[in-house]
């Protein structure tokens, strides 16, 4: 996934930034990066983050 994830369009958004996500070459193509991203997205929603970059 690339780009901006919008959960809704609030007037004063609580913004999160996701940077430097890395998986070791030996563990690539196993869905680990997707699982990490999904966990970050879920955590962000639970914490009230409205917008993630």
Write up this protein.
The radius of gyration is 13 Å and the shape is elongated. With 53 residues, the protein is an alpha+beta fold. The relative contact order is 0.35. It is built from 1 helix and 3 strands, in the order ββαβ. Strands 1-3-2 form a 3-stranded mixed beta sheet, with no helix packed on it.
Instruction: Give the amount of beta strand, in percent.
Output: 5-15%
Strand order of the largest sheet: 1-3-2
Number of domains: 1
Give the helices and strands as they follow along the chain.
Answer: EEHE
Count of discrete alpha- or pi-helical segments spanning 4 or more residues: 1
Number of strands: 3
Mean pLDDT: 80
Computed over alpha carbons, the radius of gyration is: 13 Å
Oligomeric status: single chain
Low-confidence stretches: none
Percent of residues in helices comes to 25-40%
Tags for this model:
elongated; 53 residues; 3-stranded mixed sheet; alpha+beta
Task: Annotate the secondary structure layout.
Layout: E1 5-6, E2 15-16, H1 32-46, E3 51-52
The gist of it:
This protein is of the alpha+beta class.
């Amino acid at each position: 996934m690339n780009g901006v994830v919008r959960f809704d369009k609030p007037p004063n958004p609580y913004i999160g930034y996701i940077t430097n996500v890395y998986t070791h070459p030996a563990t690539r193509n196993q869905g680990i990066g997707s699982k990490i991203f999904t966990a970050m997205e879920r955590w962000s929603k639970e914490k009230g983050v409205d917008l993630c970059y």
